[in-house]
Amino acid sequence: MSRRITGARNAVDGCRRPTNGELEVDLTPDPGLRGALCKVIEPEIFYPEPGEDATADMARELCGRCPVRSACLEAALAAEGSAVANKRFGIRGGEGPKERYLIYRRRRRVTLGDEATRTCGKAAGYHRHRRDGEDPCQACLDAYRQRRSSGRAGKAVAA
Fold this sequence. Notes:
By secondary structure, this protein is mainly alpha-helical.
């Protein structure tokens, strides 16, 4: 059974904007997530506007009680792929867009192994640590400070 809701919202995954300007969301349930609590709850809760912290907290609490939370999170990560944080939307699997992006980055780093750590000891390594939500290692911090003090940060170097 497929149901549709319409409303004036920004586009999210699984949504399309018809010519009349309203947003259509296909609510066809995923067969692997049949036991999901969100099936019986208003979907707006899981897509709070910026600043609606109470709504986001309510969505996270509902996800925390859901029996298919981990499957939902895995489905969200698979669907979003390598999308950056600002291209991920809503609370899915109990995690917000930024949290899901960090999970993706950490998993990618584990998968890449030594490839991901080659930048340690360089300013790029400092930025990688920060993107991954980690404290930079001392070698990366020193390289970043050296680069900043030499005046090269953010400026093109004349040849």
